[in-house]
Amino acid sequence: MNTVSSEFGSMVFDDAVMQARLPKETYKALRNTIKNGKHLDLSVATVVANAMKDWAVEKGATHFTHWFQPMTGVTAEKHDSFISPRDNGKVIMEFSGKELIQGEPDASSFPSGGLRATFEARGYTAWDATSYAFIKDNILCIPTVFCSYGGEALDQKTALLRSMEAINKQALRVLKLFGNEDVKSVKTTVGPEQEYFLVDKALYDQRKDLIYTGRTLFGARPPKGQELDDHYFGAIKPRVAEFMKELNTELWKLGILAKTEHNEVAPAQHELAPIFTTSNIAADHNQLTMEIMQKVAKKHGMVCLLHEKPFAGVNGSGKHNNWSISTDTGANLLEPGATPYENAQFLLFLAAVIKSVDEYQDLLRISVASAGNDHRLGANEAPPAIVSMFLGTDLSEILDAIVNDTAYDSKEKEIMRIGVHTLPKFPKDTTDRNRTSPFAFTGNKFEFRMLGSASSISCANTVLNTAVAETLKEFADYLEGRDDFEKALHDLIKDTIKAHKRIIFNGDGYDPYFSANLSITKEIGDHVSVSFYANNFTNSRPFVASYATGVKAVFTPDFYYGLTVRLKF
């Protein structure tokens, strides 16, 4: 009987497989590349390629592919078989080190933003050794980057890896100022929560709007939507449970840390949340998750909708991006600790994130923009279409004390008392959660909630990593060589918070608004009625605006009116 432990990662050429199949020196060289970013010699790659091929063939693979993520929103792959002809008319199975580390797809046939003309066709894929190879549909898939002949990035992964290197370099400079000499690398980690809808395939096939656009464009509202709030965390229906069971199995085989599954707020809406991992691996895994969701749904007579707003009047689907920064020694740099007001290192990294989000909120907004997602933002529990940060009461009071040079009155953790003696007592969190904040601090990470369900997480994390890396560079430049480090550090944190606290908003992103609508209907005989309607002729909130930039986004549409004719048969 197969268990989760035995099946997990069974289709992945992971560290355990490498250690078992590679010579000791080859394994050490490969681990040095993965952990420290050292160059991998071709002779080492040849040994790795042969072991990888043998393992894949034993698992039933016949082909290999360089699996990459062009600017199309989906993945790309070209399959080459392992066969190589022999003089006797037979073939043998071969896979060289050169084939492992480099491929050459057509660089002019993918989106490039104008970087490449049609005649400029040469492009390269290069093995990303930090993301394990895996077998999918009997194909050995090798995660790679994709760039042009001139070195321009033509994919999602290259920029993400560059941003990870940038934040690693600058974070190490800052950490050394605090005496952290044992830290050798810093990585950003991500846990993307994937929301989706499941609809019956037979019903889906009757809706051309769903087929062609991914969302409904017309039709009547259902007699029951999400008004009763009874679908969220409700009992999972047997058909959906079978889908989730097979989905988990397929994801676990690929080493994807699928952890949580539940019904979401809207009818037929669900969520899958993984355990966080390194950003580039999380991006790879999320692309695989979306692909496998759609495949498994079809096997169960359903269609998985990843559009951000497939149905009007109910919640849309997002992808909450839980982002943090961790060291190779196991420290989470966004962990406040028991006394965050005394944790200068945490406060400096917090200030860096605040400054970065404030200064680059336009790029963060652009990184999540799409036709579907812009239709979702600003309603039905989705965050507003403008960027702000939520820190909660405790951290906000600490920052206010720093800015105002006043003492911070530390609060003891309150015990949660439910009023039933048999129930356990536990410490209450220092602040509530803000459901409508676009960028919320949630204990030891930031939850960037604006991402759409169908998009790659790479772009948003590239922008976030790069923005924070630039701020950390400015901080390191300012602090290095200071005679009075403590005073310089205090002044830096104080000045940064003072200049950028405008981006912090702990309030309700859905303040009430007032609008008046009018409808007059005239019945004409038994079969005809004519209605005149006028909507939004008083509208207290046509826009929402960013306090920081003044940028406006439509909240409710302008006044409009018209006639409706109904025929009764």
Describe the structure.
This protein is an alpha+beta fold. Helices cover 34% and strands 22% of the residues. It contains 16 helices and 24 strands. It has helices spanning 4-7, 15-21, 24-36, 42-58, 97-101, 157-177, 201-204, 208-213, 238-253, 279-299, 344-359, 361-367, 371-376, 393-404, 458-479, 485-500, and strands at 63-67, 80-81, 83-85, 91-93, 102-103, 123-127, 134-136, 139-148, 186-200, 258-263, 269-274, 277-278, 302-305, 319-327, 389-390, 415-416, 426-427, 439-441, 446-448, 515-524, 528-539, 543-545, 552-554, 560-567. The strands form six sheets. Strands 9, 10, 11, 12, 13, 14, 15, 18 and 19 form a nine-stranded mixed beta sheet that branches. Helix 6 runs parallel beside helix 15 (458-479), helix 9 crosses helix 10 and helix 11 crosses helix 15 (458-479). The longest helix has 22 residues, at 458-479. 38% of the residues are buried. The mean pLDDT is 88.
